[in-house]
Write a structure and sequence with these properties.
alpha/beta; 12 helices
Length: 265
Amino acid sequence: MSRIDESFARLKASGEKALVCFVTAGDPDLETTKRVVLAMDKAGADIVELGVPFSDPIADGPSIQAASMRSLEAGTNMPKVLDLVREIRKTTELPLVLMTYYNLVEHYGPERFAKDAAEAGVDGTILSDLIPEEAQTWKAAADAAGLSTIFLLAPTSTEERVRRVADVATGFIYCVSRTGVTGAQISMAKGIGALVARIREGSDLPIAVGFGISNADHVREVCEYADGAVVGSVFVNLIAEKAQSPNLLNEVSDLVSALKSGARS
């Protein structure tokens, strides 16, 4: 059983839902990312997504795009992110997911990347632009290495797409709450519960909802029907604002604790 599977099983047994936290690896630098991830772990995060910066994103909103550009300018690349995972693994068994685009995996070499990622301590990947119809090469490499392949589904996903994702996804299914790009929102989009229900008809995998979740009330709302909530842009914004502050880790911890309260309700 993978760390991701163990995390969702533990939460289900205790009547809780998952808080999945996203940070951009290397923003403002890799050492800060390491300290932020470890602070998130201690504060109650159940899974952390590490965003591997890419120069031409299609799903990232302004906050994460800006963080990716800062990270790239600081010299972050895939080998350095894998080194970061190795460092984090010295301290914690927190499930870690890399979120990026398939271009980087293709450039690295799918089999080599899957092997190196698994050996570093990565548990799964979210490749935002990889659709199930074109995922055979990556799925074979990921399955052989023991990595979970997490796919996205959106309100516009057809029944056929939902079935395809249900057939090939592992770890969990990432349910996008709305069309468009990432970014904190004031209120949650309507109709996500219906999409989650459609996904459940064809899959026993946990379902986490993301895009636009920015506070404990949002987490509480989506956890009424989903197995977890993914929160990203509010962390990215906080890190950008407080990167040089001695209180950064305390503020990250406080935010994780507040958001996690919504997953325990």
